[in-house]
Amino acid sequence: MPISQMGCCSYQSYLHPCKIQNAMTIFSKIIAGQIPSFKIAENDKFYAFLDIFPATPGHTLVVPKIETDRLFDLPDDYLDGYLTFCKPIANAIRKAFDADRVNIITIGFEVPHAHIHLVPMNGMHQADILTHKLKPTPAELEKAQQKILYALQNG
């Protein structure tokens, strides 16, 4: 199904957040393999994948495998491991896209499932991730994925 037809809890919900109780979030559906993604990394607690409407190329989402709306409502063992999981991914993104830094952004209103945005940036002009959204093709997303995966594997 095209992303534009996913309905509630889709990426279209940036304007209309899904508030349905007991419904799987789009992130849980991605983790479960019900919706395809450009996966970057995964372990027993977290799943990282490219944002399909990135602020900058390489913009990656890191999502816990449990549904919790607010980041700081996660169990302590998740909070303890979050940045450790993100660190090699952020370093790979920085190298793959020649970014000055990879910033962590946690807004969380667009999807009711805690998540961290890893956004490669070279200045404040790239900090607007809410209204400045690129529309890459699937081929461009796959190329970005491959660049990050290569950097992850080759340090």
The largest beta-sheet arranges its strands as 1-2-3-5-4
Q: Low-confidence parts lasting 5 or more residues at pLDDT below 50?
A: 1-21
Q: Any idea what the radius of gyration is?
A: 15 Å
CATH superfamily: HIT-like
Topology as a string of helices (H) and strands (E)? HEEEHEEH
Helix/strand structural class: alpha+beta
Shape verdict: globular
What's the architecture in CATH terms? 2-Layer Sandwich
CATH class group: Alpha Beta
Predict the CATH topology: HIT family, subunit A
Total discrete domains? 1
Q: In whole angstroms, how far apart are the ends?
A: 36 Å
Overall pLDDT level: 86
Q: What is the strand tally?
A: 5
> What can be said about the biggest beta sheet?
5 strands, antiparallel
Q: Fraction of residues in helices?
A: 25-40%
Quickly count the helices.
Answer: 3
Task: Please provide a written account of the structure.
The protein is α+β, with helices and mostly antiparallel strands. The protein has a single domain (37-154), classed as HIT-like (HIT family, subunit A). The protein is built from 3 helices and 5 strands, in the order H-E-E-E-H-E-E-H. A 5-stranded antiparallel beta sheet has the order 1-2-3-5-4. A hairpin with a 3-residue loop joins strand 1 and strand 2. The chain is globular and about 35 Å long. The N and C termini lie far apart (36 Å). Mean pLDDT is 86; it is low at 1-21.
